[in-house]
Amino acid sequence: MPGTVDDIDFSDIEAKYSVEYEESLDNTVVVDGVPVIDKSKLEKLLAKICKEFSRRGISIKPDDTFMPWDDAKGKNKGYLFIDFRNENEANAAIAAMNDHPFDAKHTFKLNHFTDVERYANMNETYAEPETEEYTPREHLRAWLADPQGRDQYVIYRGEEVQIHWHGKPSQCELAHKPQWEPFLYVAWSPLGTYIATLHRRGVRLWGGPSWKHQQRFAHPLVKLIDFSPCENYLVTWAVEPIVVPEGAPQGPQYFSPDDEGNNIAVWDIKSGDLLRTFSTNVENENPSVKRQLQWPALKWSPDDKFVARVTPGQMISVYELPSMGLHEKKSLKIEGVVDFEWCPLSDKDRDEAEKAATNGADGRSGKKIPENKLAYWTPEVANQPARVTLLSFPSRTILRQKNLFNVSECKLYWQNQGDFLCVKVDRHTKTKKSIFCNLEIFRVREKDYPVEVVELKDTVTDFAWEPKGERFAIVSSSDPNLGNPGPGITIKTDVSFYQLDRGKNDFKPLRTLSNRTSNAIRWSPRGRHVVLATVGSSSKSELEFWDLDFNNEDANRREGQVAKDDWGSSIQLLGTADHYGVTDVEWDPSGRYLATSASAWTHTLENGYAIWDFRGQELIKQIQDRFKQFLWRPRPRTLLSKEQQKQIRKNLKEYSRVFEEEDQRESETVNTELLAHRRRLVDEWNAWRARCKKERAEQTGQEGAHEKKKEDDKEEIEVWVDEVIEQIEEEVVE
Hints:
GO terms for molecular function: RNA binding; translation initiation factor activity; translation initiation factor binding. The protein is an alpha+beta fold. It has a domain of about 90 residues: Alpha-Beta Plaits, CATH 3.30.70.330. Helices cover about 15% and strands about 35% of the residues. The protein is built from 7 helices and 42 strands. It has a 4-stranded antiparallel beta sheet with strand order 2-5-1-6. A 4-stranded antiparallel beta sheet has the order 9-8-7-42, with no helix packed on it. Strands 10-11-12-13 form a 4-stranded antiparallel beta sheet, with no helix packed on it. β7 and β8 form a beta hairpin. The longest helix has about 60 residues. It is extended, with a radius of gyration of 39 Å. The termini are far apart. About 5% of the residues have low confidence.
């Protein structure tokens, strides 16, 4: 009789496919510090708790919680339990939410449920902990201590990155050649502390003398990044909305399901924590109109205390850091608002802020810390004129407004010390057939914020303030091909320089350079020197190096020692150059060198880079296939006080003498090495000649002896040859 099913042994299959159930309670977390409430407020409390957890990247639902109740009092006991999917999520929740302030009176304390039993059964016998060996961390700004005071730059070519030291020709060398996995592009942080690389899985930061990995931010397929001015925060953006797959890691450094559908993320650089996400899909009155992304989409205040974004036509939303909560829980409602810009902090304001931070937040220094300022503009709507507004924040006080008429477009330009704000206003005639430009310049440091107007007949294509100065330069054009240049057509432009005349309280034109092709202005970070470049043209690639204080006595112009009518006479052309196909022009932080590059991202003809001095003399030129990027490493603000800087300028001749002696010694060393090298070459040449002569002589002597031996060994052999010349027959008669 055949066996039944019950007789078959399935033990091997059951062992193979058995499911082990999780019996541990390590995935359960106890949360103390919960407000004591009655059951009528339970639903709101749980919703608030879930929201607080989600803000720190921990996704929970009310169904995941259990709150014990005191039935006698009808209230909860001040703690609750949360069940997570696994122990890793529980650990992430404890790391993110322990000591988190829920409100002014309650702070969360989180522990594993199993810790309660472990602490209860803890051995009370003291055991000496093992002392860990201290390992000092690398200084992230060690490059500033370079004895030769050199700057650094990074080049990105093909899949290869190189970081170089740059100084005098004898000091230029390769600093580091990292072996990083493939990435999109590189970017320095604003103060040069980090270098960022964009990968498919997110952003990585590198730094220190050994260029070790410092931090990472998990934003897949990231395309754009933006650092905050003080390097405390990072903004990332990707085209694809955030998607959190099932089973993805959770925690403060990862996206949660609440972030799905957003594109922009804000991160804390030191901790790597995600602070908040936003969407770039702003509602538009006309859905058929596709609005191009404005980057940066979030704009930082200069002290990293606030970050703001504009909803075009509706409002400006300002968020506080590090909580990323909306300031005063309300946005600035501004009908029709188009764009805004924060006012930079001056060196004086930064010094006062640092002193206030040192003395404490109670203002014991006796000086009031100035508030941040921002400027925004609104277009003409119905019978309302266009308007530019200067606003103080966080008090939200309106400092100054200026009405504008017949406005097509506005663009805001702050001077880097926040002394001036230029509003470039593109105006149209009543027929709207032609465009001209006005410059509305706010003098922000003066009482009532006076506004000066510079009227121009042409269209302004570029504007740039002189750093820490009272001058600016513009590129203007009346070329009919300006709006729609065809292939091979070069736009003719004029470049003009302006200077503030404090006697007349207006901006006086210094000089106009006519009939140029320049379309980009690049001021030296130290001021005075400026480069006019033709960028992005297939037919022109000219560079002009100008000095606006060529005469020594003209440096005292601001003190009135030079006649105002002669202001423009000091503008001098130092040199001209050409870099075919130039796409980028950038000064180094010292203002002594200029780098130009032709990127393969724009075209593939003669890609590479060149470095020039401030007079236009070419120092380095490299033509490299697949060349993509050249970036100088930024430097932070000097740590020297104003008094120390004045003392250095006062004793500059003494310092110069030391540097000149070092240069002389280096030059002598170079000359000595050069002479020794030449002498060595000559000695090698003479030795080679002597050796050749000796070998020739020996060879000649051997050949002579061989010839003589051949003559001595020669045998004379005679050969007799009989030849019949004539035969005669004669008869003999007897």
